[in-house]
Write a structure and sequence with these properties.
alpha/beta; Molybdenum Cofactor Biosythetic Enzyme, Chain A; about 400 residues; globular; Rossmann fold; 13 helices
Length: about 400
């Protein structure tokens, strides 16, 4: 978990260099090959190509210069597919180019196109032209099969970007088999992907069959759930409103604008922590930032504001965790879930036991920090339908009841 999207491009590159340097050392020590996948839920919203450049340069310095960078943002469980070299959102019967979605208007990582060769040219400021980007099409995958895709990969060199089209796991299975064959023949690749490629590359099957004993490994205590919401995407707001409409949880809102304006927001944070702790003794609590996103005049300023708000949110979580142990902690949003775990709960290590749904909403068991042993639920900001957050909380409540009822 690098959480590089919460940093500027220079820091993100530095983190990637450190990770890959350590991976190379470990690979050499154990005499095993490594493959580096730079993975993100919202793959287009991030430091491309600063991160892949840092990875490529570090690998090259270790004698393993990549022949290609495979760009594969597919995230099937969240309705993200790629065909005709364009990335799309599938929402029921609606098919929408991601450039027409709210995600493209991200204050820091917004983009103008969902046509991936043009996206690569945009993000590299023209250093890599769209016409120089290679493609693995659905026809290559479904008609040519592993042999055709392997030939395309074998023809790559000098870290050329290759767009990978895929609309289901069968497509990715072909690409993975071809990549493995090419790597076995000596080719080296870096992968910039969404979650689906990682699952395919790891040979992981479908699985969401978690039971109460899987989530509450040490048994559920008598506490209640803490739901921490930092994501500002429209879907998250709808999901929170749906949960609030049930009247089954108390909402404590952290005024982001007030936190940013106040040079010493101690009173604001202490008040929020006290309210959360008090409400948590009676039932589940939603701790969330105000739904009005505070932006800066530039992407860098917006990123700095987001970092300040995240520090405030995690400060509240830490204060609450020092007073009371929740039955579970659910964090909504990619940056939020990383910051709450590391800064709020002081976690460094966790066991990933699985997901509440097939490919969505991971369940961790922290091994250290003030959240040790408390189920930690990682819920992406842009995943699921309007009901999924409510359904996840209901499932966790049911699991807690079942765990408490067992002798």
């Amino acid at each position: 978990m690098t959480n590089t999207r919460s940093f500027d491009a220079a820091r993100a590159g530095q983190i990637n260099r450190e990770v890959v340097t350590n991976l190379l050392a470990a690979g050499h020590a154990e005499q095993v090959p490594i493959a580096v996948i730079s993975r993100s839920d919202s793959t287009l919203r991030g430091h491309y190509d600063a991160e892949t450049t840092a990875i490529t340069e570090t690998l090259a310095g270790g004698g393993e210069r990549p022949d290609a960078i495979l760009v594969c943002p597919a995230y099937f469980e969240a309705g993200r597919v790629t065909f005709d070299d364009e990335h799309w959102i599938v929402d029921g019967d609606v098919l929408l180019p991601v450039s027409d979605s709210p995600y493209a208007n991200d204050a820091t990582f917004g983009y103008a196109t969902s046509y991936l060769p043009d996206y690569i040219e945009e993000r590299t400021a023209g250093r890599i032209r769209a016409d120089d980007v290679r493609r693995i099409s659905l026809s290559d995958i479904r008609t040519g099969g592993v042999q055709r895709v392997t030939a395309l990969l074998n023809g790559a060199h000098d870290a050329t970007p290759i767009v990978v089209n895929a609309t289901d796991y069968a497509d990715l299975a072909v690409v993975v088999l071809a990549a493995l064959a090419a790597e076995a023949a000596g080719k080296r690749f870096v992968y910039r992907t969404g979650p689906s490629f990682v699952r395919a590359r790891g040979g992981l099957g479908a699985g969401s069959g978690l039971l109460a004993d899987d989530v509450f490994v040490g048994g559920a205590g008598g506490g209640h759930g803490l739901i921490v919401v930092g994501s500002h995407v429209e879907l998250t707001t709808r999901q929170v409103r749906r949960l609030e409409a049930t009247g089954t949880a108390t909402t404590v809102e952290l005024d982001a604008a007030a936190v940013i304006a106040d040079q010493r927001p101690e009173r604001i944070l202490a008040d929020a922590a006290a309210r959360v702790s008090s409400a948590l003794r009676a039932g589940d609590v939603v701790l969330m930032t105000g739904r009005q996103l505070v932006r800066g005049t530039t992407g860098a300023e917006s990123l700095a504001i987001a970092a300040d708000v995240s520090r405030a949110l995690t400060s509240v979580v830490r204060r609450v965790g020092e007073q009371i142990s929740p039955a579970f902690v659910l964090a909504k949003g990619g940056i939020t879930s990383s910051d709450v775990f590391t800064r709020g709960l002081g976690g460094r290590r966790a066991t990933v036991v699985g997901s509440l749904y097939d490919g969505l909403v991971s369940v961790w068991i922290p091994e250290d920090g003030i959240g040790r042993g408390i189920p930690y639920i990682v819920f992406p900001g842009n995943a699921g339908d309007d009901d999924l957050l409510h359904d996840a909380v209901e499932k966790l409540r049911r699991f807690a009841r079942e765990s408490r009822q067992r002798p």
